[in-house]
C-alpha cells in the first residue's frame, strides 16, 4: 500500500512457498509469500494478500 499510495495497482501476482532450513538443519515448514510484478518493479505483498487486499481478476 505504501508504494502505491493506496491506489489500485495492476500486475502479475506470484504466490511462493518457501521451506527453509533452521540452524539445526531441520526444515521449518512451508511459509507463503506473495509478490506482485507491476511496471517493471517487484513488490512483496504478503500482508496485503492475507488481509484480502490483493485480488485476482477473472
Q: Tell me the total number of β-strands.
A: 3
Number of helices: 1
Q: Report helical residue fraction.
A: under 10%
Rounded to an integer in angstroms, the radius of gyration calculated over CA atoms is: 14 Å
Strand content: 25-35%
Written as H for each helix and E for each strand, in order along the chain, the element string is EEEH
Q: Tell me the major beta sheet.
A: 3 strands, antiparallel
Order of adjacent strands in the largest pleated sheet:
1-2-3
Number of domains: 1
* Content-based structural category: mainly beta
Quote the distance from N terminus to C terminus: 22 Å
Mean pLDDT: 83
* Low-confidence spans: none
Shape descriptor: elongated
Break the fold down into its secondary structure elements and pairings.
Blueprint: E1 12-18, E2 31-38, E3 41-44, H1 46-50
Antiparallel strand pairs: 1-2, 2-3
Care to describe what's here?
The protein has 58 residues and is mostly beta strands. It has one domain (1-58). The chain is 9% helix and 33% strand. It has 1 helix and 3 strands, in the order βββα. It has one helix spanning 46-50; strands at 12-18, 31-38, 41-44. Strands 1-2-3 form a 3-stranded antiparallel sheet. It starts with 11 loop residues before the first strand and ends in an 8-residue tail after the last helix. The model has no long low-confidence stretch (mean pLDDT 83).
Amino acid at each position: 500500500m505504501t508504494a502505491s499510495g493506496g491506489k489500485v495497482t495492476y500486475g502479475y501476482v506470484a504466490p511462493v512457498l518457501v521451506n527453509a532450513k533452521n540452524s539445526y538443519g531441520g526444515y521449518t515448514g512451508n511459509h507463503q509469500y506473495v509478490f506482485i510484478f507491476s511496471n517493471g518493479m517487484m513488490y512483496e505483498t504478503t500482508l496485503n494478500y492475507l488481509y484480502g487486499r490483493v485480488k485476482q481478476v477473472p
